[in-house]
Amino acid sequence: MSMAEGASMASTAANSAAARALLQVDNVGKRFGGFVALENISLSVPAGERLGLIGPNGSGKSTLVNCICGTLRNEQGTVHFAGQKLDGLQAHQRTHLGLARSFQLPRPFVSLTLADNIRIPLLYTVARRRGSHHTAHEIEERCAKLLNEVGLGEKARRLPRDLTQVEMRKLELARAMAAEPKLLIADEAMAGLTHSEIEDILSLLVRLNEQGVTIILIEHIMSAVMSFSRRLVVLVSGRKIADGRPEEVMRDPEVERAYLGQ
Amino acid sequence: MIFSLDLLINAVVSGILIGGFYAAVTSGVSLSFGILDIVNIAHPAFIILGSYIAYIVNANLGIDPILTSIAVMPAFYVLGSGIYQVYYVSFEKRGQESLRGLAFFFGLLFITEVTLVLYFGVDYRYVEASYIGAAWHFAMLDIPFRILVPCLVSLLLIAALQIFLTRTFVGRAIMAVAQDQLALRLMAVDPIKIKRIAFGISIATASLAGAFLIIIQPVEPSVGREYIGRIFAICVLGGMGSLPGTVIAAMLIGIVESLTSTFYGPSWAPAVSFGFLLLTLAVRPAGLLGR
Amino acid sequence: MTVRTPVFLLVWLVISAAVFAGSLALGNDYIFFAGYVVLQYVVLGTAWNILGGYCGYVNFGSAAFFALGAYSSVAIYKLITENDFYRMPIPVLMLIGGLVSGVVGFGMGYLTLRLRGAFFAIATLALAVVLQTLVVNWDFVGGSRGAYIIRPEQIEPIGNYIRYLFLLMMVLAVAGITIARLIEHSRLGYGFASIRDDELAAEAAGVPTLRLKLIATTISGALMGMAGAPFPYYIGYLQPSSTFGLDYAVNSIAMPLIGGTTSWVGPLIGALLLGSLQQIATVTISSAVNLLIVGCLLVIFVIIAPNGIVGLVHTYLQRKPEDFVGRRRVEAEMPGRVP
């Protein structure tokens, strides 16, 4: 069976499971003026999945994330999350539904301490969602815990400008985690990390996944992607060219040609 | 309200001609705001400065204001470059341009206006030139030269700017710096220097615009304030940085203002452009020929 | 750690009572005339800062909201007082002025807050001119000729009417800084700060940015309207050109920026210092020069001392800001921009 047939079988299987998929992307397209950033992207992510999203720079990965999360509006296609159509929903509403993302280029709140950076999603997403009242103490504890999980616990009272680029990426991830999402999209959270730091973040993501969080990992670090993902999607020039098990995808000649080079 | 075809046609033509002038006035902001994303609300202050310089030279030496303003353009260019340098170091580099940068320009606007008031008082000033006062009569049309001449020179200015931006290396670099600073750096072009040049040119156009202004109407320091709304309305309506768009938008606003003034009275005129601005921002921020 | 709001309010009311008593003791009513203007600027500066300093959205049209409050009072005066001699109490006028300005603030915000901050700022300029043109052409409130308000000479038991106005403005000023401080320490304050720092990231973190910005614009506009409502009674003769004047815009921007934008302290310091300076300068030099000074100070401070006087004090004391005002925030420079 060729990769194309395999992919189409996989996507048929995925379509039948579409009703159960946590995230359902259907024929999403996005243009910037004359430039086609995304073309006919369809994707089905079941709950609990560990999805890796790879592709060369400029292939549209971050654009796809932006369209899913509402930072950008896709002109074509629809996105469903937990059975709900996301069209017309603002980014913050999608976050309330359980969709969180970290930004590829970290965007910290520069005038707030790290603890306060984490506090924002806690105050505005978690507290609003549950309905139950969180005391200031509980929120404080949660901030500290999250910062500790990414290894920034000691810097809780510092400002983002005192952080290294690597630490800012960890803060970015922690802030996304703070929203207690059902689906977390980690956009190149590991760039520049050492081997052991990568391991730390990976085990963190695995732990999250075991607790029930669906994860989409966008990365260039192939070892991390391969070890983490149960499924791999490849984007090239705004199109999806592969979707399946990591080992099979990597053997696909089209993927080799477009992404890895021969 | 007396409606007559004569009045209507003259109002429309007058609007078109004034529109040409408005386009020159706005061209500087099309450059600084439309392309460089610098909200220079002090631009009208520089225009008024240009008017007063033209006035002083005209009153004392009798030289034509347009000639004066062209001679003074290099000085305005240097002023513009200097201001951009301060703006860049103090605000752009620190990421503070949305609050403090705006306040900075607002402060400049204010200081310029108050200084002019202190120096020249609030009396209206005007210039004398051979063509002011004469008019061209053609069928029903009554076109005063004092409006026609600035309009024609304005269109020349815009044409020159457009050629500069599209055909020269520096001009294209300016267009590029708005889109991709990294790419520019990779071409060994310093984006900051390009922006400095662009902003300098932007202020230099204010010199000419000032001369046009004082030819068309008498000037006093607070006149600049009416132009803030006009300039930004035209810039936004014209699609932010598109010079042809600026010309079209300018003429459109010129016509509407002229009709309003003729049939409803001049006290409503300031509200026209500002109202247009609010409407455009609310409905179609990308402008008529939006990018 | 931080003082609780009722205590804060009480402390400031006590201070105000002391100031009022002290001013009475001076025996010269001029202090009330001058003090009223300074207190007015405390309110305007604090109101501006809620949208400008906390949220990062610049409002150039403070004069419009102020004037709306003033002209609401004029309209009511012409409608009721002139003919029926029923005098609407000023506190009620203030509430009405606040309501009108708040609604307009909300409306304008709804139109323009979806756009970038720069467009919002320009829109506020536009709004000021449009409103001024409307008022100039509205003969009921006097149009360009202006409107006369006859204020009562005395009011028991305070004495001269001007003392009553001074007292009211002082209460409003205390209310203003209390509201500002309340916002700062609340979830709303954190939300505002996140919008100021990075609106996109704030949205992604679940902050309903449009809603919060609308809240800020409404509160800011309402406070400005409340400050404007007693103004016709203070000045006696209201004219559009001066009521919509640029000096309100400059001052309400300059005072928080010079004082410091991150907390309620900044606008208070800025207004007290600059307001008093201007009152002295107007009498000794001229009012045009005094405006020039404000403009120059604004430009200088914005370039050299972006954190204002409060920031300068921090640096001088070399303490962390958390020790100073008991909060964990400071205006920070962003790391060098990625090209």
What kind of oligomer do you see?
A: heterotrimer
Unreliable parts of chain C = 322-339
Mean pLDDT of chain C: 85
Number of domains of chain B: 1
Mean pLDDT of chain B: 86
Beta strand % of chain C: under 5%
Major sheet of chain B: order of its strands?
1-2
Distance between the termini of chain C: 42 Å
Total domain count of chain C: 1
Q: Which H/E pattern describes the elements of chain C?
A: HHHHHEEEHHHHHEHHHHHH
Work out the helicity level of chain B: over 70%
Note the gap between the termini of chain B.
40 Å
**Main pleated-sheet profile of chain C:** 2 strands, antiparallel
Number of strands of chain B: 2
Query: What general form of chain C does the structure show?
Result: globular
What structural category do the secondary elements of chain C indicate? mainly alpha
Draw up the topology in text.
The complex is a heterotrimer of chains A (262), B (291) and C (339).
Chain A: H1 3-16, E1 21-32, E2 35-46, E3 50-54, H2 61-69, E4 76-81, E5 84-85, H3 91-97, E6 99-101, H4 114-130, H5 136-149, H6 165-178, E7 183-187, H7 195-210, E8 214-218, H8 222-228, E9 231-236, E10 239-244, H9 246-251, H10 253-260
Parallel strand pairs in A: 3-8, 3-9, 6-7, 7-8
Antiparallel strand pairs in A: 1-2, 1-4, 4-5, 9-10
Helix pairs in contact in A: 4-5, 4-6, 5-6
Chain B: H1 5-35, H2 43-61, H3 65-92, H4 97-120, E1 135-138, E2 141-144, H5 145-167, H6 169-179, H7 181-186, H8 191-216, H9 223-237, H10 243-264, H11 269-283
Antiparallel strand pairs in B: 1-2
Helix pairs in contact in B: 1-5, 1-8, 1-9, 1-10, 2-3, 2-4, 2-8, 2-9, 3-4, 3-8, 5-6, 5-8, 6-8, 9-10, 9-11, 10-11
Chain C: H1 5-26, H2 30-54, H3 62-84, H4 90-112, H5 117-136, E1 147-148, E2 154-155, E3 159-160, H6 161-184, H7 187-197, H8 199-204, H9 209-228, H10 231-235, E4 237-238, H11 240-243, H12 246-259, H13 265-284, H14 287-304, H15 308-317, H16 321-325
Antiparallel strand pairs in C: 1-4, 2-3
Task: Provide an overview of this structure.
The complex is a heterotrimer of chains A (262), B (291) and C (339). Chain A has a domain at 3-105 and 181-260: Rossmann fold (3-Layer(aba) Sandwich), CATH 3.40.50.300. Helices cover 43% and strands 24% of the residues of chain A. Chain A is built from ten helices and ten strands. Chain A has helices spanning 3-16, 61-69, 91-97, 114-130, 136-149, 165-178, 195-210, 222-228, 246-251, 253-260, and strands at 21-32, 35-46, 50-54, 76-81, 84-85, 99-101, 183-187, 214-218, 231-236, 239-244. Chain A starts with a helix and ends with a helix. Chain B is an all-alpha fold. Chain B has one domain (5-223). Helix content of chain B is 76%, strand content 3%. Chain B has eleven helices and two strands. Chain B has helices at residues 5-35, 43-61, 65-92, 97-120, 145-167, 169-179, 181-186, 191-216, 223-237, 243-264, 269-283, and strands spanning 135-138, 141-144. Chain B has a two-stranded antiparallel sheet. In chain B, β1 and β2 (141-144) form a beta hairpin. Chain B is globular. Chain C has one domain. In chain C, 74% of the residues lie in helices and 2% in strands. Chain C has a two-stranded antiparallel sheet. The longest helix of chain C is centred in the N-terminal third of the chain and has 25 residues, at 30-54. The radius of gyration of chain C is 20 Å and the shape is globular. Chains B and C meet through α3, α4, α7, α9 and α11 of B and α5, α12 and α14 of C.
